[in-house]
Design a protein that fits this description.
- The chain is 28% helix and 24% strand.
- The chain contains 16 helices and 24 strands.
- The strands form six sheets. It has a seven-stranded antiparallel β-sheet. Strands 5-6-7-8-12-13-24 form a seven-stranded antiparallel β-sheet, with helices on one face. The chain has a four-stranded parallel β-sheet with strand order 17-20-21-22, with helices on both faces.
- β20, α13 and β21 form a beta-alpha-beta unit.
- α5 crosses α6.
- The longest helix is centred in the middle third of the chain and has 15 residues.
- The structure holds adenosine monophosphate (AMP).
- The site of adenosine monophosphate has 19 residues, from α13.
């Protein structure tokens, strides 16, 4: 759960990166950082907290140069400390390198143990540092070749940006778990996790990086390389259900549209007699709207969210999570009292939030509370970069739907089917990762990362093409 942004060959690259991160703040609020290249050296600034809390004009002015990458982080591997904030910057025999990474490497621990046994000294506990260590141990006269060799040896999810004296490199893993978009701002290449970053900058989205594609940007030129393909794509469909911003286009679909469709399908799959549909803001908003339209039940914004606390779930400390719901949500009694409510949310994880919300709505006078969830029961942990608790903490891992209904004290509970979710996005159903619901992990969680033998020769795709 991270957002990344990078731009090449642009005046004030760090300022633009700041804005690109600002638009992607929803992808992580724990720490953020920017690194720039001024033609001679890298300049880096990182801190804990939100982008606007870390950077001011003075700090941005200390990040000169036309090449820059940045990161907003929520840790899924490695703890929440400044040492783990990205970009990670190191000196190597190939010159200084900086990296930002969205995703999670399943092979990181095994690789790290091997590297440490051979003498590597890690600065962080983040899986992302593994890329740099592997590169340092396999230097090549071109940074991109070193990276390509390394990517052949790692397993798991990565959308990453690498900054070096040679250029800005963007890479997406062969399964395509996480999004990564190539755009163009005044003729210069830029990269973002989500298109909402381009909207803010008035940059033009050009295309998603293909899975297994590595793009090198130098000035206004880009070159594209391919990693050896894997049989099928495994794009994280949870990006559509919960994680991405509704105004972003992810994997060729606008997130708001897919959420509307999920809500509409849910209304058809699990209809209920009720007076009003109430979304759990923000992630349930579009699903509820879709449900309301398809069921012809009026929608009321009966729960108000306090936007100034950040995503409680995303805060790593238990103490904050404990306060979560009350701090975050408050009912509008007049819209709820005396009514039969359909409460629409995107997912149930531990079940504790849903239970508190149902209780809150009842206390506000709802006569019935029917919970509708626009995804299947989350029964398995994500190992590819979405923060989910361990399996034993997932209420659906060992409870039936009826047990969950009783736990959250709803009058009825229904989830959207897997087919319903996959029918709400335009790609072929087998091109998405559904591991959190199905347990079907496209890359085994404990993979020890045997090297891919046939990495070379590399196929050069579009040498010299303009961004
Ligand atoms: P829970 O009480 O654990 O069932 O929390 C459910 C709420 O968490 C729902 O409102 C979801 O929108 C939200 N949610 C689902 N997945 C995540 C996640 N990975 N990170 C943060 N919040 C999430």
């Amino acid at each position: 759960m991270c957002g990344i942004f990078g731009i090449e060959g642009a005046p004030d690259a760090a300022n633009l990166t700041y804005l690109g991160l600002y638009a992607q703040q929803h992808r992580g609020q724990e720490s953020a950082g920017i690194v720039s290249w001024d033609g001679e050296q890298l300049h880096a600034e990182r801190g804990m907290g939100k982008v606007a809390e870390i950077f001011d004009e003075r700090k941005l002015s200390e990040l000169p140069g036309g090449r820059s990458i940045g990161h907003t982080r929520y840790s899924t591997a490695g703890s929440s400390v400044i040492a783990n904030a990205q970009p990670i910057v190191v000196m190597t025999s190939m010159g200084p390198l900086g990296i930002v990474h969205n995703g999670n490497l399943v092979s990181a621990m095994a690789t790290r143990h091997e590297l440490e046994a051979a003498g590597s000294i890690f600065q962080t506990t983040s899986d992302s540092e593994v890329f740099l260590h592997l590169m340092a141990t396999r230097p090549h006269h071109e940074v991109v070749e070193s990276l390509l060799r390394v990517l052949g040896d790692v397993r798991g999810a990565y959308s990453l940006l690498l900054i070096s004296r040679e250029g800005l490199i963007a890479a997406r893993d062969p399964h395509g778990f996480r999004p990564l978009i190539l755009g163009e701002l005044d003729g210069q290449p830029c990269f973002a996790s989500e298109t909402c970053a381009f909207d803010l900058l008035e940059a033009r989205p050009l295309r998603e990086l293909d899975r297994g594609e590595v793009v090198v940007a130098r000035g206004d030129q880009i070159e594209s390389y391919r990693l050896p393909p894997v049989a099928r794509a495994s794009r994280c469909v949870f990006e559509h259900v919960y994680f991405s911003r509704p105004d972003s286009e992810v994997f060729s679909d606008t997130v708001a549209q897919s959420r509307l469709e999920m809500g509409a399908r849910l209304a058809r799959e699990a209809p209920v007699e009720a007076d009003v549909v109430v979304p759990v803001p923000d992630s349930g908003l579009y699903g509820a709207l879709g449900f309301s339209r398809a069921s012809r039940t009026p929608i009321e914004l009966g729960l108000i969210r306090n936007h100034y606390i950040g995503r409680t779930f995303i805060e790593p400390q238990q103490s904050i999570r404990h306060f979560g719901v009350k701090v975050k949500l408050n009912p509008v009694r007049e819209l709820i009292a005396g009514k039969r409510i359909v409460l629409v949310d995107d997912s149930i994880v531990r079940g504790t939030t849903s239970r508190k919300i149902v209780n809150m709505v009842r206390e506000a006078g709802a006569t019935e509370v029917h919970v509708r969830i626009t995804s299947p029961p989350t029964a398995f942990s994500c190992v590819y970069g979405i923060d989910t608790p361990t399996r034993s903490e997932l209420i659906a891992s060992d409870h039936s739907q009826e047990e969950i209904r009783r736990f959250i004290r709803a009058d009825s509970l229904a989830y959207l089917s897997l087919e319903g979710v996959l029918g709400s996005v335009s790609g072929s159903p087998d091109s998405y990762c559904t591991a959190c619901w199905s347990g079907d992990y496209p890359v085994p969680a404990e993979s020890h990362g045997e090297p891919q033998a046939e990495l070379f020769p590399l196929r050069l795709e579009a040498a010299g093409s303009r961004a």
